[in-house]
Amino acid sequence: MMKVQLYNTASRSVEEFAPIHPPEARIYSCGMTVYSFAHIGHLKTYIASDILRRTLEFAGYEVRHVMNVTDVGHMTSDEDEGDDKMDVGAKKEGLSPWELARKYEEHFFNTIREVNIIRPQVICRATEHIQEQIELIQRLEKNGFTYITPAGVVFDSNKFDRYADFARLQLDGNIENFRTAADPDRKSPQDFSLWVLNKPNHVMQWDSPWGRGYPGWHIECSAMAMRYLGEELDIHTGGIDHIPVHHTNEIAQSECATGKTFARFWVHSAFLNVDGTKMSKSLGNLYTLDDCRAKGFTPLALRYFFLQSSYRKPINFTWDALEAAQTALAKIWEFCSELPAPSVEPLEDYLSEFRAALYDDLNTSAALAVVHKLIKSDADPAAKARTLFKMDDVLALDLATSRTRLNDLRTMRGATQDSEQKALELAQQRQELRKQKNFAEADRLRGEIEALGFTVMDTPAGPQVKPLG
Ligand SMILES: [Zn+2]
Fold first, then answer.
1. How far is the centre of ligand 1, averaged over its atoms, from the C-alpha of 31 (Å)?
2. Ligand 1 mean position to 409 CA, how many Å?
3. How far is the CA of 436 from the centre of ligand 1 (A)?
4. How far is the centre of ligand 1, averaged over its atoms, from the C-alpha of 173 (Å)?
5. Residue 4: which of 417, 361, 415 has the closest Cα?
6. Which residues lie closer than 8 Å to 460 by C-beta, 6 or more apart?
């Protein structure tokens, strides 16, 4: 078995991966809070975990992958203030919090399937593991790491002397990462809720030894990870935004309950910016996979886009960059669609170069470079096919069904061009209506154009349309 090197956030260095129970590799990934659609930033993180999983399988490990679904509902800013996300979302959509959670959970798993993310063997909902969470809090209570305030059961971070180590936190000075004002009875701002009490407006509530209430956000991950993977994980994944609070708290509560190292490796995916700025709802640049499809992109173009750089590098998403990724992927599909039936043996030298790239902290951009090198080479086409399809076990770009993929893409692009043509015609009609001062009807047409996914630009040469966003 070739050794896989991974960057471990815990040590801030690249280390050789060695699981506790070889050949099994046990991975836990923080899942979604299911109160709205996953955006492309979430997909970046989950594609990174998928590449990790596939790479370990490529290296011969048997991966056991667990992902949670946060369906309990927590406060708006993942803190203890404000209204609960799930309650707010449910009211807005006229659903119960349970219905809302199921709706977005289903959408999420459909979305990740479209970018060829392998479904984890275990998907666990927080609402179905309340007992495990209560038992873990009881262990912490017994070990002396909790105290009780009118707001609930709180983790006493001062009792865990390594609390600040993982995120290299400066607890005395800068506390901007921490919740404030949530609970005036807390001893320290970084202390966090294990069980929340006295929130009558929160819809989801359960009985507990401390009274009726609901679990804090962090405890669910520790409780479910331990339930399905044991008290020591090989790898825990997530986005880097989770390092200072969520993962810091997972480590604190897990290690204070068990006395063991919770996860050997912490693998974090870097941020995704859009057009050079942070994605946010208010800026209107929080894109989903559905938005990409509406603009004529195949979901795998997004996967290819992420594979072009390291998961540890922040990337800037633009529609032009996605277009370039789609063009590059379509070229690979064109090449593969003309290959003969694959030979029996792959080209070992290319495969080992490909492996070396991936085993070097999942260097997908170097792995793609090997793909392009192989395509350009004068190797036997049947052997090329075998080798490329083998590489696709990790890349998951559907290379073996390239012809179908290419046809789907052309059909979709054709449909997008049709809507652009239609939008342009509407824009010309709208200009006529404006000349006739029929502004009401002109506004209606603008709405129709936007419904097609375009916006109108009035130029000296007449109206033009461009894709929204
Ligand atoms: Zn988590």
1. 7
2. 36
3. 59
4. 26
5. 361
6. none
User: Measured in angstroms, how far is the CA atom of residue 66 from the centroid of ligand 1?
Assistant: 11
pTM, entire model: 0.89
Q: Give residue 445 CA to ligand 1 midpoint distance, Å.
A: 46
CA atoms of 217 and 84, how far apart (whole Å): 12
Among 269, 291, 325, identify where a domain stops. Answer: 269
Residue pLDDT tens, the chain, 469 long = 679 999 999 999 999 999 999 999 999 999 998 888 899 999 999 999 999 999 999 999 999 999 999 998 765 444 445 567 778 888 888 888 889 899 999 999 999 999 999 999 999 999 999 999 999 999 999 999 999 999 999 999 999 999 999 998 877 644 544 454 567 889 998 999 999 998 888 889 999 999 999 999 899 999 999 999 999 999 999 999 999 999 999 999 999 999 999 999 999 999 999 999 988 877 888 999 999 998 999 999 999 999 999 999 999 999 999 999 999 999 999 999 999 999 999 999 999 999 999 999 999 999 999 999 999 999 999 999 999 999 999 999 999 999 999 999 999 888 888 888 899 999 999 999 999 999 999 999 998 888 888 888 888 888 988 877 6
Q: What is the CATH number of the domain that holds 168?
A: 3.40.50.620
Cα(221) to centroid(ligand 1), Å: 5
Residues 339 and 359 sit within 8 Å (Cβ to Cβ) = no
Distance CA(13)–CA(7), nearest Å, equals 5
Give residue 406 CA to ligand 1 midpoint distance, Å.
38
Number of domains in the chain: 2
Report the separation in Å between the CA atom of 291 and the middle of ligand 1, taken as the mean of its atom positions: 27
How many A from CA of 423 to the centre of ligand 1?
44
Q: Determine, yes or no, domain membership for 276.
A: no
- Taking the C-alpha atoms of residue 80 and residue 179, their distance in angstroms, rounded to an integer, is 7
Task: Record the tokens describing residue 140, joined without a space.
Answer: 């912490």
In a domain, 145, yes or no: yes
What is the residue whose two structure tokens read 């009726």? 212
Look up the domain containing 461 and give its range: 411-467
Ligand 1 centroid distance, CA of 207 (Å): 23
The rounded Å distance from CA 404 to ligand 1 centre is 38
Q: Decide if 426 is inside a domain.
A: yes
State residue 438 phi and psi, 5-degree precision: -90, 75
Residue corresponding to tokens 């959509």: 93
